[in-house]
Task: inverse folding
């Protein structure tokens, strides 16, 4: 059965372009197009699409407010269609934090412009996603600077993919201001990584920044992979720092969660915590196993709270996770 897609965009040209990019795929059917949130809401009820593509900048109710209502009242897979201005990127990052499963860049408006099948691939992936109503995030953990626990933790290494920005917002929102240094590889278009860092920084008591070459790892800081053509890893001995290295994709990705986790196992060993969150595929599973074998404390997000239980499922099947837990408990298990 074909995947049913509803396109919501205030631009008639963009609606036609997106429909054209999907129309050549036998397994995808555009069941309707809407020009604003009000029309889109009615068509969602009438057509019951499997996937919605949603423009952010629309007259009346904007895409972010509409997405918030969708995720509250009728959760479903939504792909955000966004421009590359800073304002558009910031809105896209907030949309991913609200529960959008992917983001698609507006690469042009000329009819016939080919995107290499990217939108169709996103739709296929989104159709497999299980979206649920958002839970209220737990309160932040108290400061750990004077506590006896986790003073030996030198690094928290985190990996995530589909649904990861929303999960990271919950996880990091529970981190204390003085948490051990944390490094994150989140699969996302590099063009949106700076905006995602800003969005997570606003939700996290600790400071969230993009990782830069040779940046020292400091307590109370979280380092997000810039998401370009380099892997992000940890390096150093007594003084840990960010290492960004060009190279072939690892486990199908660059940057790769496996690359980060393997470096954490090698450099930090038992003084690290590894956390593998929601995402498609298997990136991070073997790396989490390497961390567990090096004596690190390893945690996988459970199926009930994952948007996609792919990466954690593989890690659990390998015996890589010491603990399997819902997203709202992971920070406490990692830091308590």
Result:
């Amino acid at each position: 059965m074909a995947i049913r897609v509803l396109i919501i965009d205030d631009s008639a040209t963009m609606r036609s372009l997106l429909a054209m990019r999907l129309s050549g795929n036998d397994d995808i059917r555009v069941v309707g197009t809407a020009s604003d949130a009000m029309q889109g809401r009615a068509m969602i009820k009438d057509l019951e699409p499997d996937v919605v593509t949603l423009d952010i900048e629309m007259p009346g109710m904007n895409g972010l407010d509409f997405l918030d209502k969708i995720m509250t009242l009728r959760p479903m897979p939504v792909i955000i269609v966004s421009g590359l201005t800073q304002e558009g990127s910031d809105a896209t990052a907030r949309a991913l934090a609200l529960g959008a499963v992917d983001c698609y860049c507006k690469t042009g408006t000329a009819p016939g412009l080919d995107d290499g099948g990217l939108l169709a691939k996103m739709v296929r992936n989104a159709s497999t996603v299980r979206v649920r109503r958002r839970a209220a995030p737990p309160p932040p953990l108290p400061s750990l600077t004077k506590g006896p626990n986790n003073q030996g933790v030198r690094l928290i290494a985190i990996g995530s993919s589909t649904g990861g920005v929303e999960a990271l917002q919950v996880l990091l929102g529970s981190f204390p201001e003085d948490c051990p240094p944390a490094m994150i590889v989140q699969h996302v278009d590099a063009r949106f990584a700076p905006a995602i860092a800003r969005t997570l920084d606003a939700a996290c008591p600790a400071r969230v920044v993009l990782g830069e070459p040779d940046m020292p790892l400091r307590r109370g800081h979280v380092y997000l992979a810039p998401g370009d053509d380099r892997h992000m890893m940890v390096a150093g001995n007594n003084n840990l720092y960010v290492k960004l290295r060009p190279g072939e994709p690892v486990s199908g990705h660059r940057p790769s969660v496996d690359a980060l986790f393997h470096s954490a196992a090698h450099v930090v060993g038992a003084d690290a915590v590894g956390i593998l969150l929601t995402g498609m595929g298997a990136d991070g599973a073997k790396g989490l196993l390497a961390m567990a074998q090096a004596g690190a404390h390893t945690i996988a997000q459970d199926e009930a709270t994952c948007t996609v239980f792919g990466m954690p499922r593989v890690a659990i099947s390998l015996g890589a996770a010491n603990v399997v837990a819902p997203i709202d408990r992971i920070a406490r298990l990692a830091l308590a």
User: Anything to note?
Assistant: Confidence is low (pLDDT under 50) at residues 143-148.
